[in-house]
Amino acid sequence: MLECVINISEGRQLDAIEKIRGQIGHDILDIHSDFHHHRSVFTLANPIAARQLSQLCADQFDLRKHVGVHPRIGIIDVVPFVPLENSTIEDAVRARNEFAEYAANELKIPSFVYGPERDLPEIRKRAFVDLMPDFGPTEPHPTAGAICVGARQILVAYNIWLKNATIDDGRRIAREIRSPQVRTLGLQLGNEIQVSMNLIRPDEVGPDIVFDQVAKRADIARAELVGLAPARVLANIQKSRWDELDLSKEKTIEWCLATRNRAIQNLN
User: Fold this and answer.
1) CA 90 distance to own-chain centroid
2) Residue 184 and residue 174: Cα distance in Å, rounded?
3) Mean pLDDT, to the nearest integer, of 225-248?
4) How far apart (Å, rounded) are the C-alpha atoms in residues 3 and 16?
5) Interatomic CA distance for residues 219 and 161, integer angstroms
6) DSSP H or E run through 80
7) What share of residues in the chain are helix, strand, coil (percent, to 5)?
8) CA torsion through residues 89, 8, 53, 144, sign
């Protein structure tokens, strides 16, 4: 089985986001929207739903009107395919390439691929500068931009807000805790400062570890899990810390998949 975690450059039209949820249905396991990032993260249980979601978003959202703190190159900004049980990274690469071909042929949107060949930060730096799309047109789509389509292992997206901090504090802390296991950005969101992270190897460096690393450097206002985490990550953390870290069994991939499967069975 493959999970697909699509990052859409739209986090403010919440009525439109909810309408999309209703159109796609049970294959959406989770949606996380953020006003300041101007971004929504859709966790999908079916690669076919990725095409439906992309079509809906390309039809109604416009990158030219987008202003947000998160880096992006397109409306359908990031489309990673992630192997879960009984699937491999080779399966994810195959799904990635099939999706990129679909985006090129049906949506006329160029795609840059990441995974074994290169990582996502490289695309962010090089797209349309000295790196041309792997699929589709050589120029960005006029309203949808381009897509980063990936094949990767499970990661955990995680944010920590700081108390009484400046943007310089946020950027310094982001630099200090950055590592091969953790990608970081220090961001200003309104009047608040956030350290935004992707935990690339969450079995090695999980939410508890980065939380404690940040806490050594600043007072923490709150933490936030973006999307879902695998149950094994929670199993490595004392349950007494789950609330502090914004973790729960209901926010695991396994819990949401089981809920989806029961809902589908009840329809049959």
Assistant:
1) 20
2) 5
3) 97
4) 23
5) 9
6) strand 76-83
7) 40, 30, 35
8) negative
The second-level CATH assignment, the architecture, of 156-255 is 2-Layer Sandwich (3.30)
Per-residue pLDDT tens digits for 31-89: 999 999 999 999 999 888 999 999 999 999 999 988 888 889 999 999 999 999 889 99
What are the domain boundaries of the chain? 2-151, 156-255
Q: Any idea which residue has 């990274």 for tokens?
A: 89
In degrees and rounded to multiples of 5, residue 46 shows phi and psi of -145, 120
CATH architecture of the domain with residue range 2-151: 2-Layer Sandwich (3.30)
**What are φ and ψ of residue 11, in 5° steps?**
-135, 15
Token pair 């069975």 is found at 265
Cα angle value 58/63/67 (rounded, 5°): 140
Q: Which of 11, 10, 5, 12 is nearest to 27 (CA)?
A: 5
268 has a pLDDT exceeding 80: no
Q: Is the pLDDT at 197 greater than 90, yes or no?
A: yes
Residue with tokens 């992630």: 82
- CA-to-CA distance for 24 and 27, rounded, in angstroms? 7
Q: Name the CA radius of gyration of the chain, rounded.
A: 18
CA 234 to chain centre: 19
pLDDT score at 176? 98
Sequence-distant (6+) residues with CB within 8 A of 168 are none
Task: Say yes or no: do domains 2-151 and 156-255 share a fold.
Answer: no
